[in-house]
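Worked problem 6 (solution included).
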Amino acid sequence: MEIVEILNDKVIATVASVGSWNLLDMETEYAVGLEINANHIRGKSEGTVKATGFPIHKGKKTMVWEIKITDENDKLICISRCTVAVIKKNKAK
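Solution. The predicted structure is:
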């Protein structure tokens, strides 16, 4: 596995995590990753990349995110789907 693929996977997980965090009730829920599916279209060894995420499903128990990583010329570097589980926090007394 190349360094670029590792970096892309970490970026993908971060975008899905931050996106999920913004949609959850943090008092009662948290999210954990279930699956990352990524297609690495081209490599990038220098310059700037941009990651954008969009929720394509927000259910009570799961969320599915589409994440695209592009370069400074809007060329697609990676496209991904990330699934997270929404888990209710225990209300221990």
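Discussion: The chain has a mean pLDDT of 87.
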